[in-house]
Amino acid sequence: MKKINIIALVTMLLVLMSCGPNKQERAQALLAEAEMAMGKADYNVARLKVDSINLLYPDQIEEIAAGKKMMARIEITEQKQSLAYYDTLLVTREADFERLKKNFTYKPGKFEGYEGTYVHKRQKISNSHDRSYIRAYLDEKGEFYISSRYHGKGHIYHNSIKVYDSGLFAETEQIPEKSFDNRRFDDGEDYWETVNYRNGTDNGVVSFIVNNYDKPLKVQYKGKKHHYIVMESYDKEAIRDAYNLSLVIKEIADLKKNKAEAEKRITTLAKML
Question: Helix crossing, 61-100 with 23-39: angle to 10°?
Answer without folding.
Answer: 20
